[in-house]
Input
Amino acid sequence: MDFIMDFDPFKILKKALKMGGDFADIYMEETINTSIICEENKIEKVISGRDRGLGLRVIFDFKTAYAYTNDLTEKGLLELADVVSKAVKDGKAKEDLSLVKKEIARGFFIKTPSSGVDLLKKVLLVKKANSFARGFDKKIGQVKAVYGDGFRQMAVVNSLGQWLEENRTGILFLVQVVAREGNVVQTGYESIGGVMGLEIFEMNPPEKVAETAAKRAILMLRARKASGGKMPVVLSSEAGGTMIHEAVGHGLEADLAQQGLSVYSGKVGAKIASPLITVIDDATIPYKRGSFFFDDEGSLGQKTILVENGVLKNYMYDRLSAMKDGCKSTGNGRRGSYHHRPIPRMTNTMIAPGKSSPDEIIKSLEKGLFVKKMGGGQVNTVNGDFVFEVTEGYLIEKGKIGEPVRGATLTGSGPEILKNIDMVGFDLGFGIGTCGKDAQGVPVSDAQPTLRIPEIVVGGEVK
Output
């Protein structure tokens, strides 16, 4: 489907470059979003909206002038272009611009587009999840079920003569459950999502999502407090990719590396991890939450090997950071909306599978901690130090998964942990999220196989 523009985009770009500049582009989008929240046993919010707007950027001397508007008349856009052009001081106007090639992404096949589903059917999904979770156990006192969908039609036109268009459909569904027994309160959380329509519920009905969250909360109620100290840890492939995303991924975004805000700055070609570790960012995986055909500045989405057998090979680049390093964009220029300029962001980031069986990894430990599910965390990208919450964990005793424990955290240094991982499973599990950076969020997914860390600091009860 072609994006309808009631103006000549190359006329706007030429006006934006009238005072000079190295590159200019237009990002135009129209979005339709629905959000439904069920909380306190009732539908709290139903929000449905449409937005349409445009962002205009000029890159000059490795700097960016950016402005956005929802006034899409040619007169309004020419005025916007005049404002952006004034940020450029060299006074050397660009030559005439013309279309070189127009490309429209083929898109993923969507079986049941959210735009074609009645709102009441979407409300019923959160009601089903809420009802099932509340009836799961009397100890459950709070349930929050959230449904969200979005359709984005986008176009990028730039001063190289490229015109690229893509339609994107996304969905997110999550359930959070709070259970209480005496003075102990525990939370269970589960989410699903991706670049797809409501067919996602064929394999993951709302009751199943609610059950997973409820079971996790109830399980942790009876779990004893985790012991603190240094110990071996096995991260399950089900744990989600929190560690790869936070402790490694952000540090491999080119803008942070160029600013010296990453522990991996200036280390391309250096050994930064165990030879068992390969890290990949891949926007081309069908239907994953971070997937697309073109990024938000028109570069082709691709598979990028960031770390190969422990050696740092590449960073994730957008167009501006690639210009600074004299290389090509890796297709990681992303933005939350037309309100934001593009910056380097992850897509689907993962540690590649290894050769060990998950059972073999667990059996290799006499004693340790098995992390089945990770929660949130924090990382200092400058030095790589991190702390992550464990939302579902178990003791490992004599090579077997034992009783559940609660209240554990993992603390350490990302680079050190990467170097120390000594067993990598042949499985692979994905988690999903919305990544925040520079006040804008983008959909991502993260993945890892089962991993053995021979020693890490586990926060918990010190005896």
Remarks:
- The CA atoms of residues 227 and 463 lie 7 Å apart.
- The two ends are 64 Å apart (CA to CA).
- Residues 119-136 form the longest helix (18 residues).
